[in-house]
Amino acid sequence: MAERSEEVKLLGMWASPFSRRVEIALTLKGLPYEFSEQDIANKSPLLLQSNPVHKMIPVLLHNGKPISESLVILEYIDDTWQHNQILPQDPYDKAIARFWARFVDEQIYVTAMKVVGKVGEERDAAVEATRDLLKLMEKELVGKDFLGGESLGFVDIVATLVAFWLMRTEEVVGVKVVPVEMFPEIHRWVKNLLDVDVIKKCIPPEGEHLNYIRARMDSLKLKSV
Amino acid sequence: MGDEVILLDYWPSMFGMRTRVALEEKNIKFDYREQDLFNKSPILLEMNPVHKKIPVLIHNGKPVCESLIQVEYIDETWPGDNPFLPSDPYQRAQAKFWGDFIDKKVYGPTRLIWGAKGEEQEAGTKEFIEMLKMLESELGDKTYFGGETFGYVDIALIGFYCWFDVLEKCGNFSIEAECPKLIAWAKRCMKRESVAKSLPDSDKITKFVPELKKKIGIE
């Protein structure tokens, strides 16, 4: 096999769950990469050039070739470096994993954003709606250490959004969106995640992250006034 | 082989059409079951309890939901000699990117074009044309989105084609004038038996939309 310098670069953002999930995947595979922190408010020429369609992070650059959309990137990483597989092998299990990943991103994330972005009655409604969605995730965890089964998999990596973003907003928002009495399985799962070195290494540091969420929430409130 | 394949679907759905085309392309015999979305059947509610939406692919009793997930599942389960996705990881990623783009950016505007009026409708039309132009640019001079072989992105987009007539009428614009290469591509796809079998006639859709609007309570 010819020697080739693998150049892996990630255009990302330290507080973004979508960016961090790519870092988790790269770290799980033991792949060295260059992280390039992007300023979303002032997008770099490289970002605009690499993702002209959406102009968003994360973008993975592999030997200069860009891949955008975090779920597409995760599958690309799994396809390209086939050790330590993230997705299950069986087509049916894969289909289920893809379904739940989309559920997290398209349902939970969208609804949970309203918890941070709204106030009063609208926020209460968003909390209710988020809990309804989380009840489905709670069911999936019964009898399992991880959403992927015995070990961390694709859906766990995607659902870190719930564990380390949604659940962290509770402190800032002052609402227990995911109370342990209602969601014992999810809380157990978060503890399991925190036992995994790669996860500990790749999630944003809590203190700074809470400050960031607080600042974002304030700016969202200002916008809606 | 003893495979039981059932498809819970709704005839005008451009998402259901994806799964129909995929199954036809692989020559899979399936039991097509038309669903009444205004009176959802027990099997639909049981097989897609999370979203309660069509299409639902049921393979030997096990449900797969979400049309693009179904297309990949079909490709992986029955690879045959016509894979929908290229084997090269980078090209696969590009195909999945465009499939995701169609889901996120093309469907929404179409709802505004046939379902809204005035400024909202105009905005939908503008957005729709912009998104089609991006797709047309991605297609370029290729026969299909993947090159010489019909595949994932073609399957993801072609169902919208039978809606073009009604969209043009509602939005008062010509898709062919804006995106001639895309229309040429669609016509090429329509020549495939799998596509011709799976898409309803345009005029059926055009007649159906006013009825649909009444059903969902839009004037």
UniProtKB/TrEMBL annotation, chain A:
GO BP field: glutathione metabolic process; toxin catabolic process
EC number, as in UniProt: 2.5.1.18
Residue span, GST C-terminal domain: 90-219
Subcellular location: Cytoplasm, Cytosol
Keywords associated with the record: Cytoplasm, Detoxification, Transferase
Superkingdom assignment: Eukaryota
Stated name of the protein: glutathione transferase
Provenance organism: Brassica carinata (Ethiopian mustard)
High-level lineage: Eukaryota, Viridiplantae, Streptophyta, Embryophyta, Tracheophyta
UniProtKB/TrEMBL annotation, chain B:
Listed name of the protein: Glutathione S-transferase
Record-level GO BP terms: glutathione metabolic process; toxin catabolic process
UniProt family annotation: Belongs to the GST superfamily. Tau family.
Domain GST N-terminal: 3-82
UniProt-listed SUPFAM superfamilies: GST C-terminal domain-like (SSF47616), Thioredoxin-like (SSF52833)
Enzyme class, spelled out: transferase
Subcellular location: Cytoplasm, Cytosol
Gene3D superfamilies given in the database record: 1.20.1050.10, Glutaredoxin
